[in-house]
Design brief:
Elements lengths: L1 H33 L3 H14 L4 H13 L3 H14 L4 H13 L3 H14 L6 H14 L3 H14 L4 H13 L3 H13 L10 H14 L3 H14 L6 H11 L3 H14 L4 H13 L3 H13 L3 H10 L2
Helix pairs in contact: 1-2, 1-3, 2-3, 3-4, 3-5, 4-5, 5-6, 5-7, 6-7, 7-8, 8-9, 9-10, 9-11, 10-11, 11-12, 12-13, 13-14, 13-15, 14-15, 15-16, 16-17
Length: 312
């Protein structure tokens, strides 16, 4: 009996070490992934799976590392393998959904997010999945469905800043500018509560664009000015303020802002086009034609039409 007990104890110890070693390699792989050593992470996850081929966390995390390296075929194989090991494990469905968005398989992504939502009913992570599914629906122009998902996320967590921001973006797209501004204000009010928040400059510039939609050009100028104070190199800040000033007939101010936009991006055909319009409205035909020609050279078809009308 003593001999039998010894053998059983040895087996139990062996199996215990077996599982812990796979976990140790998985933990090491995660640490490497956190340091952006993705190839090293994949090596460790593969070592874990050589010890225990059913260790699902290693399979799922290896898929994440492969996806980050744009090995989408390898990542998809790992997510499929993880789901086959445990169809009730939400993470690989969610991660496969993210991957399918990268592959522009939006219908497939929505299906995977739906399965993850089904499995995460009592988890706070469900908010993140609703948010990502809403973005996939936006890619399919299903804005109603996207709003529905964000409404569900915000019902669970009314302080989800990114949810308000994304809902504002959708409302902007639907030309519900007042609704968009209301959501951008809520996003600003809830920054720093949930983490993974939008940047203040992103909220502010989009609130300015919504005010442009309402023809509130002075309010838009004020928003774009705030963005420039936050980040003078923010893409679109000078450009949009220049447009707003143009609508206010402040052509000198518009030209000055569009000068700055061109300094930031000398290949912006729209900036040359609108500066050309501002020059024309200032009585500077030659300078306007010069900008139209530059804009046309960069591919702006509207500039080609202006040249045909005014610059022959």
């Amino acid at each position: 009996m003593k001999k039998l007990f010894y053998i059983l104890t040895a087996l139990l110890l062996t199996f215990a070490g077996f599982g812990q070693t796979a976990q140790r390699y998985t933990d090491s792989g995660q640490a490497k992934a956190d340091r952006n050593d993705l190839k090293g992470a994949i090596d460790d996850y593969t070592r874990a799976l050589a010890i225990d081929s059913t260790y699902i966390e290693a399979v799922n995390k290896r898929g994440n590392a492969k996806s980050a390296l744009k090995d989408y075929e390898g990542a998809l194989a790992d997510y499929n393998r993880a789901i086959a090991l445990d169809p009730g494990f939400a993470k690989p469905y969610y991660n496969r959904g993210i991957l399918r968005v990268e592959l522009k398989d939006y219908h497939g992504a929505i299906a995977d997010y739906g399965k993850a939502i089904e499995l995460l009913q009592n988890s706070p992570r469900i908010i993140e999945v609703y948010s990502n599914r809403s973005l996939a629906k936006c890619d399919l122009k299903d804005f109603k469905g996207a709003l529905d998902d964000l409404n569900k996320a915000l019902k669970i967590n009314p302080k989800f800043a990114n949810g308000y921001y994304n809902r504002g973006m959708i409302k902007n797209e639907l030309k519900d500018y007042n609704g968009a501004i209301e959501d951008y204000n809520k996003a600003s009010a809830t920054l720093g509560v949930s983490g993974n928040d939008p940047m203040p400059a992103d909220i502010t510039i989009n609130r300015g664009i919504a005010k442009m939609g309402l023809l509130e050009f002075r309010g838009a100028v004020a928003e774009f000015t705030k963005v420039i104070k936050i980040d003078p190199a923010y893409p679109g800040a000078y450009f949009n303020r220049g447009l707003a000033k143009g609508y206010l007939n402040d052509f000198k101010g518009a030209i000055s802002d569009l000068d700055e936009a061109i300094k930031i991006n000398a290949q912006d055909s729209d900036a040359y086009y609108y500066r050309g319009l501002a020059w024309f409205n200032s009585g500077e035909t030659a300078l306007g034609c010069h900008d139209f020609n530059k804009s046309a050279d960069l591919g702006n078809t509207e500039a080609v039409k202006e040249i045909a009308k005014y610059c022959q």
